[in-house]
Amino acid sequence: MDDHHGLKFASLNWTNVFLLILTLTGMLWGSRGLKSSRPSETTILPGETMCGQSVVARLWQDPFEAVERRTHGASGLCQGSCTAQPDLGEAQAICKIQELVLSLNDQERPLIVLGVMVTGDPYANGMEWRVRSRVALLSGLAAAGYASKDREHIGYFRIPSSELSPNSSRPCGISNLTCDDVMVPFEWFEADLLREKKLSSSQPHTILVLWLKEDHFVAEPLDRINSLWKKLTETTQPAPKAASGDMAVRQEQQETDRRGKLRLLLRQFHLLGPWGSTTLAAMCRDLCRATPSLADKERPVSAVNGEGPRLHIHCSSPTVSDRLLDGCKEEPFDCSVHTDYYVPRATVSTMFRRRNIEFTNLACTDSELIAELLDELKLRGIDPIGRQHRIALISEYDTFYGRSLPATFVGILQERIAGLSGRCASDLEQVVGCFTYLSGLDGKLASRADATPTDNKGGDKGESGDKRARLEELQRPEGNSQMDYIPRLAESLKQEDRKSNGKLKAIGILGSDVYDKLLLLQSLRPQFPTALFFTTDLDARFFHPQE
Predict the structure, then answer these.
(1) Of 542, 543, 526, 523, nearest to 470 (Cα)?
(2) Mind listing the pLDDT tens digit for each residue in 396-425?
(3) 483 near 471, Cβ under 8 Å?
(4) Both ends of the chain: CA-CA distance in Å?
(5) Distance CA 50, CA 65 (A)
(6) pTM
(7) What is the dihedral of CA 441, 453, 180, 86, to 10 degrees?
(8) Domain 367-448+466-543 falls in which CATH fold?
(9) Residues forming CATH 3.40.50 domain(s) in the chain
(10) Is residue 377 a contact partner of residue 492, using CB atoms and an 8 Å limit?
(11) Mind listing the pLDDT tens digit for each residue in 28-83?
């Protein structure tokens, strides 16, 4: 027996055993997660300025968070009495921008101004989207053959709110500073020397990127963009001493020439935005309310009261249907008249084109999305039209986007029923139930600008063990947390399911905040195990192991 066991032991493939041990060791080691050994930075030293960029910032960093840390200290918030740190470079930022623009003076390959409109949400979801937006922009510019002129700094300047729109400034407690001042971070990009040959002759050699918080442009957005452009082209040289005769005429002519050259060089203004459907609706409302004369019809809307930029809007994130935008002449979802809802932004593009504003749509509209969604549900055996299956829609109430999605869903469903039966479905309550919640269910408020979600991947077994126990603890009906509404929402859904004799087959969780969606999914999924859950966004946070 001993010899038999010895032979079996000797016949083992030790190479495979060794590889198996290495694989198991790697799996155990990898499950611990990556951890950087970089020491924490305790002090941010002032950096060397280049092209007016004086704020230390990583290329992936939220530009507003970096500037607010510089101007308001570590808290990054302006509440009550502000304690802004003086920045001598700020006053000269626009002047340095103008000096660089004039030094380029290349008419064959002119520069462009690229305004990037991002959310101003002060919470974690908004900060995450600003970081993603900057990384996406840098990736796109790198693919197009551009590189940052200063990879370690970002610049900024302020515009008083009163200069964008009168009577909008709120005192903040410091002279020459208000909490409502429009902060505009900026950075320069130029053709990458290693890839410059890939640029065509029509492409600009230099791009000035302006980061714009959408909050400052919700009201009268086109006029405010025009005011921002004028601020860049105004001469900021110190007022000359009193002069008379030919000297005064020459000084005035020099300023006029300088202003004219700046307006010519900065004429190309591209806007990557707006960020949200609310601002796009405001643009459409302004365009529809304007009644230009024949002489003004071929001029930009911003140029009716003065010369403005050649504006080109690249609409990449608003998805609201054309028929729900203010000012559109179409009746929203008129099921008696079949309309082609697969043509995105047809009405909106026409509105902008009539005012000589270029408009390029880069996003799928809600109408297209809902049409595809209904087809996908039918493929999965859920048919609200033919089989009277019930669908519940849960959306946030406090955003235009959250309110428009259920309306679009019902509208497209009405059009499909009318196309099949030849009559309008006046009442869809039997197949579609709409429920709402308020954003920020967890009750977390905006705090420090440098605050990031805590990373507890390692040791707290109690917190990472039972997720449902944590949810139940946070569902107490008191305090800032709104999660006590979730059990009542679940009970309402169960009542709807009982009324429909178990025909509730799908639950759609709509909205703009990923963290709210995760909370709703974690709470409702165990209570409706047979229902199909769906949402409208594919986000990497949905697939995190801790979720």
Answers:
(1) 523
(2) 998 888 888 998 898 888 888 776 665 565
(3) yes
(4) 53
(5) 20
(6) 0.78
(7) 160
(8) Rossmann fold (3.40.50)
(9) 367-448+466-543
(10) no
(11) 555 555 566 666 655 555 555 667 788 888 899 999 999 988 776 644 444 433 34
